[in-house]
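[Help] Beginner question about ligand-bound structures

Sorry if this is basic. My supervisor gave me a protein sequence and a SMILES string for pyridoxal-5'-phosphate and asked me to "get the holo structure". I don't really know what that means in practice or what format the answer should be in. Inputs are pasted below exactly as I got them.
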Amino acid sequence: MNHAKINKLIDQYKFDTPINVTKTHLPNLESFQDYLKVIWENNWVTNNGQLHLRLEMELAKFFRAQYVNLFCNGTLALMLAMHAARLHGEIITTPFTFPATPNVLHWNEITPVFCDIEPNTYNIDTDKIESLITPKTSAILAVHVYGSPCDVRALECISNRHGVRIIYDAAHAFGVELDGQSIADFGDISAFSFHATKLFHTIEGGALVVRDLNLKKRLDFLKNFGIADEETVVTPGINAKMNELQAAIGLLELKNVATEIHKREKVHYKYMDLLKTTPGIKLPEKLPNVKRNYAYFPILIDRAKAGISRDELCDSLRKFNVFPRKYFYPLCSNFPFFASLPSASKEKLPIANKVAENILCLPMYGDLELDNVEIICHIIKNLMCTHQF
Ligand SMILES: *Cc1c(COP(=O)(O)O)cnc(C)c1O
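Answer (accepted):
No worries, everyone starts somewhere. Holo just means with the ligand present. The predicted complex, written as structure tokens, is below.
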């Protein structure tokens, strides 16, 4: 590495304020205050308030889904989805995801069986699932990584052939459509996260989209201690309810989501344009028949061609006040509490391990100025040259 050259670059291009991997969009403060007035007037702050009911209805319309169930966060939504669907034994899932995905299996006393991913979308490789199915397999938990849809048709075939359920962790896929159909239309249950770092958010929050009224009712009990009425508790539920302040943020953010996607689309194509000829950088794939949400901008670094490793690039960018994130590193199958599982060995998950070592998510949010995208790309290209020579 040529320190003198890098220091000169830093002098020239360092941002005055940090550019993080994402920036939470907040609604107009006055419009939030209008909702606060309603909440104060009704003196109803949680437990199925009117804003909660309205957000469930508006999201059902948005997803073109029959039933939406809101939660205080995406992890508890996913955890209760497993419980409500009465899943057990083993579930085949991807190691290339956020820790919440395999961790909720642990909380349901289900053994995760890790399956390798495919190299273009980084989603679970449906060609490798069937060899992992055993008599104990009750479901497949697939993740639409970075909002790129899984091979939902192949998963449906596997589900029908083996009688296993399909659950989608759709935390990244808000607003995504495949062949004109909402992403929530596939599988038995889709789980969304509305965390502040996600494309659409309620500060903390989450939702399940289900197709079955009984499942919807069971989830209503499970997120509220199992209470059916004042004197009846039907199941050992927990507390995972969304409150009225979260729902108010959701109602306001839902109005902004189309604009946010549109602005991110511009950032996406700016990056694509500026990085398309840079050797050693694999850019996001084109996704035919998909209405994307542009939630993330992942690049995969090929050290041999780029002359710089992912870690070197990430560390160097920090010196410029640019903070990309290694989503997802470390790989979930390498967590100390999963690493001894037979399915977690590195030789069985070569692609997932390689991607986790080389992936980097660049800053992506609607308010990221295109001029700043240009500077970020300029820094990246210069770092590559400086490391190389
Ligand atoms: C964010 C995320 C979750 C967890 O959601 P929370 O709302 O933060 O609990 C689960 N799965 C994936 C893939 C995520 O990115």
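A couple of things worth pointing out: The chain has twelve helices and 17 strands. The longest strand covers residues 137-143. Feel free to follow up in the thread.
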